[in-house]
Amino acid sequence: MPASGDKITSFRDPGVQDLFSKDRDFKNADIKPAGDQAIKPADRIKIRKFFEDCTRQEFDNEPEALADAAFVHLHRFAKEHLDLLERLQQLAPLRPQLPTALAHLEATLSKCLQSRQIEATLVAVKKHLDTLRDGIQDLGIYRGDLTEEAISQVKRAQRVLTVEFEQLQQLGLDPALEQAGHTLQAQLALACPWRDISSARPLLEQIESRYRESRAELLEKQEQQIERILEQVKLREGFARLDPDAADSVLRLVRDKRIATTPEAISPALIVLRNSVPPRLKEGAEQAHNRLDELLSIKVQVVPFRLGLANRELSNPAEVEALLQELRERLLAQLKDNSRIRLT
Fold first, then answer.
1. Strand, coil or helix: 216
2. How far apart are CA 237 and CA 299, in angstroms?
3. What is the DSSP string of 39-73?
4. Which of 58, 65, 5, 4 is nearest to 39 (CA)?
5. Calpha distance 27→259 (Å, rounded)
6. Please, what sign has the CA dihedral across residues 114, 119, 122, 126?
7. How far out from the chain centre does Cα 216 lie?
8. How many angstroms separate the CA atoms of 59 and 286, rounded?
9. Is the Cα torsion angle 118, 124, 128, 132 positive or negative in sign?
């Protein structure tokens, strides 16, 4: 053993050349008989078979050859393990639980590669041989299954569930669509959700298609409402006499309330499209009528008149007559020369 304290058991160990080429190092070395071998022939056979099984290559049974295999291939497995972790990160927020040996593989490989000494390396490999074998086997399986296509499909399933399916749920689902969503949720809850993910493609397409249909229906309904309001504005007396710029300034107040989106978009949500369009267009209609009043009042004054009859109850003919008389008096009070009343 040299003065540095690193035990030398092979002519390939670091420090061998200095030990035999420098007098001082040689004189200070503690040279002992070989004694019992830490790595016996049976151990080397097991280690050799391990590397041959996991690399599909052949190796000599000598310690130096086996240590070289460890330095080369364990480093490669460490890189492949890092690659696997990066692939798994792409699945966030999913965090699949890895098998124990695979989860501990990084630490196990690190322990086996701590030393550059031949014997120390083989002793570490021997100690962790079972964990290495299981972890590297799982590593190959996981990397083989977790392809870019599989990752893409898992991410697609996550998006469909958290965006399209959730938005459809807010509107109410039919049983078939509800079952499709539950099946996808069960797939993503598996330990390895990417396995057999291709079988979920019809379900994804079913939900995506229904989402686009629902969105298109809501957008078509919005356009129909806009057209009805525009026609009502155009039918008002005096609108036809407006010049093109003035007419556009009135109609634009309605058109600007349109929610501009597409059937493929994911925002705003379906329920927002359904619930916010009517009040937006109602506001736009009021603004358009008010603008038209302003333009027409240059020649004829248009007086908006709110009836205020909501929730009023009538129980007999006398009350009806009284209400009509009340309305007549209120309307006549507002009606003046060169003016018109617009009921709102």
1. helix
2. 12
3. S-HHHHHHHHHHHHHHHS----SSHHHHHHHIIII
4. 65
5. 88
6. negative
7. 23
8. 86
9. negative
Note down pLDDT in tens along the chain; length 344 residues: 444 545 544 434 454 444 444 444 444 444 444 445 678 999 999 999 999 999 999 999 998 999 999 999 999 999 999 999 999 999 999 999 999 999 999 999 999 999 888 888 999 999 999 999 999 999 999 999 999 999 999 999 999 999 999 999 999 988 999 999 999 999 999 999 999 999 999 999 999 999 999 999 999 999 999 999 999 999 998 899 999 999 999 999 999 999 999 999 999 999 999 999 999 999 999 999 999 998 887 655 667 777 777 777 777 878 778 778 877 877 777 766 566 677 77
d(CA 49, CA 61): 9
**What is the phi/psi pair of residue 203, to 5°?**
-70, -40
CA distance 200 to 183: 8
Cα separation, 189 vs 96, whole angstroms: 9
Nearest by Cα to 61 from 72, 73, 52: 52
Interhelix angle for 201-234 vs 148-159, to 10°? 40
**Could you state, in order of their start, the residue ranges of all structural domains in the chain?**
36-146, 149-213, 305-344
Of 204, 80, 98, nearest to 154 by C-alpha is 204
For the entire predicted model, the pTM comes to 0.70
Contacts 24+ apart (CB under 8 A), 49-53: 50/125, 50/129, 50/132, 50/133, 53/133
Distance (Å) of CA 122 to CA 37, 60, 113, 315, 329: 11, 14, 10, 101, 107
